[in-house]
Amino acid sequence: TKTGFIFDLDGVIVDTAKYHYLAWRNLAEELGFEFTEEQNELFKGVSRKRCLEILLDIGNVEASQEDFDRWMVEKNEDYLRYIEKMNASEILPDVTRVLEFLKERNIPIALGSASKNARPILEKVELLHYFDAIVDGNNVTKAKPDPEVFLIAADKLGASPENCVVFEDAVAGIEAANTAKMVSIGIGDDKVLSEAHHNFKDFTEMDTEFLEGLIK
Ligand code: G16
Ligand code: MG
Known about the structure:
It catalyses: beta-D-glucose 1-phosphate = beta-D-glucose 6-phosphate. The protein is an alpha/beta fold.
């Protein structure tokens, strides 16, 4: 019996990666180099600070602490301008169906995300009310693949880690879930997420029978 379900945000509930990409690309452009969509793959599930370090590496840009801090703020302000326009139409296919399935059965639901903007995003897409706990970039000290984010989420749900299920789109997230001894479910490319216990291209592929099997 699984008693806690934990969802990653970007790439699982909504595709905010495209807005992160635009904001990072704008910053790169300002700093005089190109940042491609392919390079943006490296940023998925990775903290804002780590993303900027990688970006500056790509552009071969030297930064003082002051520059670094300013660019962090600038990127986030830009990103927030994209987020501002989000609405429920941006929820990824069948996410709401799965959340409803769990809610109807009173199964505790948590968010486990690296983002510091998780709460306003869930509000924007009108999903906040489904979540019994939100653990995000504001609550953790160690980034995925460290299991901290999911362990705090399980604790907040009052569930033991072995009784938790994690939905993740990033390799580091699957690794974090596995280290936490949770059931990991990869959402996305099964070749990339080959370490996951189960794989689905997206939630439309996940039928009721599978979900019932998890909570039985
Ligand atoms: C998300 C994204 C990452 C982003 C991180 C931090 O992770 O995938 O690209 O850098 O959050 O976001 P923010 O700058 O909003 O704090 P997740 O864990 O939701 O997939
Ligand atoms: Mg993700």
